[in-house]
Amino acid sequence: MTTNTVSAPAPRTPIQEFWHYFSSNKGAVAGLAFIVLICFMAVFADIVAPHSPSAQARDALLLPPAWLDGGSWSYLLGTDDVGRDIFSRLIYGARLSLSVGAFAVTISLVVGILLGLVAGYFKGVVDICIMRLVDIMLAMPSLLLAIAIVAILGPSIFNAALAISLVSLPNYVRLTRAATMTEMSRDYVTSSRVLGASPLRLMFVCILPNCLAPLIVQATLGFSSAILDMAALGFLGLGAQPPTPEWGSMLADALQFVQRAWWVVTFPGLMILITVLAFNLMGDGLRDALDPKLKQ
């Protein structure tokens, strides 16, 4: 007599478990696919773009998209008022927007983690000083504060990125501080302190790794906010300066043609919308995959 035994499924590795929960959110997978595509186009813009972003075709002013009457497949999404290819400018604009987003998120994340760890670990006067400064920054609308910073420093891509990183800082400080104070009450932190671990070791080796999950999600969502703020500053003329291809400045330059050349305004706006939506969807998927409470 034989007995059929059902073997237990092999345990998933951490990466497999992460992908299992992340891929269950179809919107997050779609967002990730678009982000990979836009990153590929941004990195290889010199190869992918059919034209130079600053090349002007005087015989093709305000040319409609290729599928409309009067359009040309040489200019897939049409041209602007000085004959520049919109598709090529969108690709090069993606390179600029993603670079600014990466710079702003990196600066605000690193500085925010440092300030949040210090405030949550030492508490007392240090915590009060840091958090009151954060409260002052949160008292002003982030875009208005960014405009004020760029107005003081002068309009440029670097100053705009620096302003965006500064206005994004409070989110990371508050999140890191809250996570640090939660972890400080854990037994493993108490044990490490009793064993003689230094404050730096406690903060960066014991506490910080256990605070990274919400910070990763916040950084992903902050990436979309940085792209949106950069487009807003560019629209106001405080970001990238002409003729640098940037989605916000492309919108500002095309406002006067919105009635008779809709494509000049529509495609940059769609790129901003879809890119921001993709990062938000991916951030939602990361939250599903990294939050233990949602796995139960």
From TrEMBL:
Topological relation to the membrane, as annotated: Multi-pass membrane protein
Predominant location category: membrane
Cell compartment(s), UniProt: Cell inner membrane; Cell membrane
UniProt-listed Pfam families: BPD_transp_1, OppC_N
Gene Ontology cellular component list: plasma membrane
ABC transmembrane type-1 domain location: 94-283
Claim: Transport is one of the keywords in the record: yes
PROSITE patterns reported for this sequence: ABC_TM1
Segments traversing the membrane: 28-49, 96-122, 142-173, 223-240, 261-282
The family this protein is said to belong to: Belongs to the binding-protein-dependent transport system permease family. OppBC subfamily.
Protein name: Dipeptide transport system permease protein
